[in-house]
Design goal:
This protein has one domain: Dynein light chain 2a, cytoplasmic (Beta-Lactamase, 2-Layer Sandwich). The protein has 3 helices and 5 strands, in the order H-E-E-H-E-E-E-H.
Length: 120
């Protein structure tokens, strides 16, 4: 039931922008709670990498006196990976195309993360 509700939030998020290629809600220990991924993308790998990167981002932000972590953004040749907390127990991960309008995606991701945090 909860997975279905999370998946509906992810599908709505994906539907807001054609630039969003994949989304997932991952527990802070790396287990995928819900995901909307393209065929061939390994759900377990996405979960493990998301949890590890957010944890590293948290620590980096604290150690370098940048305050509480808001998000981790990775830019590669083939697009972006955006990770943000969705409450204390989950990470929202979004993969976007290289020419994505990040401002709009940031706003949509923030709203989705708030919805997920309320649900978990």
């Amino acid at each position: 039931m909860r997975e279905d509700l999370l998946k509906s939030i992810l599908q709505e998020l994906s539907g807001r922008s054609a630039d969003i290629e994949a989304t997932g809600v991952i527990s802070t220990d790396g287990l995928t709670m819900a995901a909307v991924l393209p065929e061939g993308m390994d759900e377990d790998r996405v979960g493990a990498m998301s949890a590890a990167m957010l944890s590293l981002g948290d620590r980096t932000s604290q150690e370098l006196a940048r305050g509480a972590l808001d998000q981790v953004l990775i830019r590669g040749n083939n697009g972006y990976v955006l990770m943000t907390h969705a409450g204390d127990e989950a990470v929202l991960t979004v993969l976007a195309r290289p020419n994505a309008k990040l401002g709009l995606i940031f706003l949509d991701v923030k709203r989705a993360a708030e919805q997920i945090a309320e649900m978990i």
